[in-house]
Amino acid sequence: MNVVICGINGAMGRVLHEEIKTYDNINLIGSLSPRSGRFGQDIDGMPDVVIDFSNTANIDFLIEYATKNKCALLICTTGFSDEDKAKIKEAGKAIPVLLSSNTSLGINVFRKILKSISAELSTFDINIVEKHHTKKIDAPSGTAKTLSEDIKNATGREHVEISAIRAGTIPGEHTVIFSGVDEILEIKHTAFSKKIFARGAINLAMKLSSKSPGYYLMEDFF
C-alpha cells in the first residue's frame, strides 16, 4: 500500500512516519504540506491513501488532491466546522473517505461499551471528563464530542456535560461518569503513547484503501 502523509512534521505525523517503517507491506511515497509549498510535486508513485494529521485549514486541498488521484482519504484531524464536514461527506461520492476523531482500537471498543451502558443507565447523570497535553488546540476533544453524540443517541438526551483539562504531556484520557442515587459507575480509556493512534490509523488506512467510494463511519470498521 502506498501512503502519503499530510502533517508529517507535526507530533502525530512524526510518530506515524516512524510506525510505518515497521510495516513491510506499506510504502511511504511522500508527504503533503500546503503551508510549506509541498502540494504533491515530489511524491514518487501513485498513492492508495492519504492519511491526514494536520489541521482543518488543509481540508479543501486534501479533498482536491485525493479526488484527483482517486485514492482513499483518512482524516484524523479534529475541530472541523459543520461546513467542512459537509464537504468531507460530499467527497465520499468520488473516493473512499473516513473522518476519525480517534483511531485507537481501545477507544472504539470503548464506544461500543458506552452505547450499551448509556442505554441501560439512561436515568443517571452522565458526564465526560477529557484530559490532554497543553499543545492540543481544540477543547473539548473530537473524541469527547463523539462520545457525547453516542450517549445522546443512546439516551435521547439533548446535552452531555464535557469537562476539558489541558495539562503537561498527557497523550489522551477520556472518562465517562454515570452518577445515580448512591452509586457511581466510571469507564475510562487512557492513551500512554501516540503510537496507538498511529497503529490504528495504519490499520484503518489499509481497510479504507480497498473500499469503494463512500463516506464511511468508524462503525463500518469495528
Essential attributes:
222 residues, alpha/beta, Rossmann fold, Dihydrodipicolinate Reductase, domain 2, 2 domains, 6-stranded parallel beta sheet, 4-stranded mixed beta sheet, 6 helices, 34% helix, globular
Walkthrough of the structure:
The chain is of the alpha/beta class and 222 residues long. It has 2 domains: 2-99 and 196-220, Rossmann fold (3-Layer(aba) Sandwich); 105-191, 2-Layer Sandwich (Dihydrodipicolinate Reductase, domain 2), CATH 3.30.360.10. Helices cover 34% and strands 26% of the residues. It has helices at 11-20, 59-69, 82-91, 105-120, 142-155, 195-208, and strands at 2-6, 27-32, 49-52, 72-75, 96-99, 125-132, 161-166, 172-180, 183-191, 214-216. The protein has a 6-stranded parallel β-sheet with strand order 2-1-3-4-5-10, sandwiched between helices. Helix 2 (59-69) packs parallel to helix 3 (82-91). The longest helix has 16 residues, at 105-120. It is globular, with a radius of gyration of 18 Å. 33% of the residues are buried. The mean pLDDT is 95.
Short description:
By secondary structure, this protein is of the alpha/beta class. Helix content is 34%, strand content 26%. It folds into two domains: 2-99 and 196-220, Rossmann fold; 105-191, Dihydrodipicolinate Reductase, domain 2, CATH 3.30.360.10.
